[in-house]
Amino acid sequence: GNSVTQMEGPVTLSEEAFLTINCTYTATGYPSLFWYVQYPGEGLQLLLKATKADDKGSNKGFEATYRKETTSFHLEKGSVQVSDSAVYFCALSDRTGFQKLVFGTGTRLLVSP
Amino acid sequence: SAVISQKPSRDICQRGTSLTIQCQVDSQVTMMFWYRQQPGQSLTLIATANQGSEATYESGFVIDKFPISRPNLTFSTLTVSNMSPEDSSIYLCSVGGEAGGSYNEQFFGPGTRLTVL
């Protein structure tokens, strides 16, 4: 079945450091890929998405590129801020299961001043 | 994107009782979903709420434990029945991307934090 694997957290960084959160997936066909963010005490927000190979999703300085050859969708940001502290979830949507989302385990990011 | 509200935002319940969670969307949507997020865990899909017909449950979830209603295109309820402490989780509803996004996006409500004693 479909699955998403994320690097374990927490990831602890200083402000302005470079961020990478790894995400790999297993799926049949050509899934759509997503990053969701959950700030403390809040619900999930869609951060960015990519729907086909080599697509790059970007938002709020975050980027992720859909790499079919390595089945990966790593999240990156060049300079993190304290306000980026949150839990980040990688997810996929299999086109055969209409809009069903399969989530990774989530990675907690802690950014210190 | 759609504005999604959930009631209650949190509750503390006694074991053996039931709680009904409401999800309201500010626009008509075809697809509505219910997820569970256990403490420190990821999200797991419970079921797809179908308007006018029975919900479609994922493996490991049954209608007797999690009955769902979907009376129209803007509203759904999830009931957690005969609760035990293992049901302590955040329950989230989401809607399909037709509500302001592309077809394969989902937008989430703020969640209901349930604690069962």
Give a written overview of the molecule:
The complex is a heterodimer of chains A (113) and B (117). Chain A is mainly β and 113 residues long. Helix content of chain A is 0%, strand content 50%. In chain A, strands 2, 5, 6, 10, 11 and 12 form a 6-stranded mixed sheet that branches. Chain A has a 4-stranded antiparallel sheet with strand order 3-9-8-7, with no helix packed on it. A two-stranded antiparallel ribbon of chain A has the order 1-4. The radius of gyration of chain A is 13 Å and the shape is globular. The mean pLDDT of chain A is 92. Chain B has 117 residues and is an all-beta fold. Chain B is globular and about 40 Å long. Chain B starts with a strand and ends with a strand. The A-B interface holds A 32, 34, 36, 42-46, 49, 51, 89, 93, 95, 98-106 and B 31, 33, 41-45, 48, 92, 94, 96-97, 101-111.
Q: Would you tell me the structural class of the helices and strands of chain B? A: mainly beta
Question: Number of DSSP strands of chain A?
Answer: 12
Mean pLDDT across residues of chain B: 90
Query: H/E series of chain A, N to C?
Result: EEEEEEEEEEEE
> Biggest sheet of chain A, open or closed, and with what strands and sense?
6 strands, mixed
Ranges of chain A where pLDDT stays below 50 over 5 or more residues in a row are none
What's the count of strands of chain B?
Answer: 11
Category by helix and strand content of chain A: mainly beta
**Main β-sheet of chain B: number of strands, strand sense, barrel status?**
7 strands, mixed
Residue-averaged pLDDT of chain A: 92
> Helicity of chain B, in percent?
under 10%
What is the tally of helical segments of chain A?
0
What sort of overall outline of chain B do the alpha carbons produce when their principal axes are compared? globular
Strand content of chain A: over 45%
The quaternary organization reads as heterodimer
Q: Terminal Cα separation of chain A, in Å? A: 41 Å
Largest interface: A-B, 22 and 23 residues
